[in-house]
Amino acid sequence: MANLIVTGGAGFIGANFVHHWRRVSPQDSIVVLDALTYAGNPANIDGLDGVELVEGDICDTALVSRLIDDHAIDTIVHFAAESHVDRSITGPDAFVTTNVVGTHSLLKAAKAAWLDRGTGMPHRFHHVSTDEVYGSLEPNDPAFSETTPYQPNSPYSASKAGSDHLVRAYHHTYGLETTTSNCSNNYGPYQFPEKLIPLFTLNALSGKPLPIYGDGMNVRDWLHVEDHCQGIELILRNGRIGETYNVGGGQELPNIQVVEEICRGIDAAFAADPSLAQRFPNAPAAQGRPTAELKTYVTDRKGHDRRYAIDETKIRGELGYEPARDFPQGFAETLAWYLANEGWWQPLVARAALAA
Keyword annotations for this protein (predicted)? Predict the structure, then answer.
């Protein structure tokens, strides 16, 4: 039996991991530490047994220390992060505070509890990072591997690179038992509607424009969040201490192709279920028109990386990782979830509209 702290566990990837871990290890206890900022939602983990939600900041080292001691924590899975690139361009301070200072706060608390006080407790600090720390690839460049030099190009990716280096340093300097994973673009249930797939899906249902940056040919490796959680589980159970593992979905697609898949999926869903036209009357598909008419090209964002791609050779070879979904299957599951969970996303959309 393990006792976990999952930081950011009320956010998108963290909440999916909490659901995943409850299924595969129902005997374990989980403390979710989440600041419940705009992207953290207690509803994401409602109804889960054996999960305690603590509203708090990872920068509060004293709080983290108390949680480790009070719950005999032996595993920290660290998702908490500011992660939206556009927000990092307009407000980088929050990214440095949460992603760098916050990660250091967790590392200090973990070191004090697991090493300095001499408990000798077997432990694990797993840090969840991003492929964006590696920079941008040209069309014919090999995919990112764990030995690719870091070349972050946005305040977001620079702050995540800093946190990665701190985790590595705490392992090599102090002996903290750490692992790190660098993942590609996640999508799936509970994703806050500011990222491409949920944003465009909900815009299409409301008849709003689908704003495509530049020429739409920026390429990403798309990873369904449940496949990501499976990869993290493999690392926690069998990953080598001190190692980094890249986790990808094996679905390298230009953004415009993703947008076209969203449009096709919504058109097909409306054709198959006439009740959707009553629920979402402003959608072009409700009026028999193609969702693709909402596509709009806008000025590219600053420092927009052209291509990311993940080389999964290490995690596949060492741990047997293999994503279960290609993008069409994964998106079909995701669209079905958003259509079935309007009560989850409507308050978020309404709140965002009020804040605009």
Answer: Lyase, NAD
